[in-house]
Amino acid sequence: MNISALNTGINGINQGLNNMRRNASTIAQAVNNGISEGAVKPPAEVTSALLNLKQDALQIQASTKVVETVHKMIGSLLDVTA
Question: Whole-model pTM?
């Protein structure tokens, strides 16, 4: 059974997690470099990565809602046909 909405939701979660890992790595690298160089303010890439982390979290939340909605719809359909 191929449910495109379910696949879209799962792909959205996976993409959000992958993006989150990448942005977290960018932040960690910048922090490590900044500590060794004695930087006082974060570089622009850290600010951008922090904003992207928030967007990634919102993408994961939205995709989770899609999966939950599909789950409820399938449950309702099964209840009706039973």
Answer: 0.79
pLDDT, one tens digit per residue, over 53-63 is 999 999 999 99
- Whether the predicted pLDDT of 1 surpasses 80: no
Structure tokens at 73: 């719809």
Nearest to 61 by CA among 24, 21, 20, 27: 20
Q: 45 and 30 in contact (C-beta within 8 Å)?
A: yes
Whole-number Å distance between alpha carbons of 1 and 70: 13
Q: Nearest to residue 31, comparing CAs of 18, 17, 47?
A: 47
SS (H, E, C) 20-64: HHHHHHHHHHHHHHHHHHCCCCCCHHHHHHHHHHHHHHHHHHHHH
Task: Say how far apart CA 79 and CA 59 lie, in whole Å.
Answer: 30
The highest-level CATH class for domain 4-81 is mainly alpha
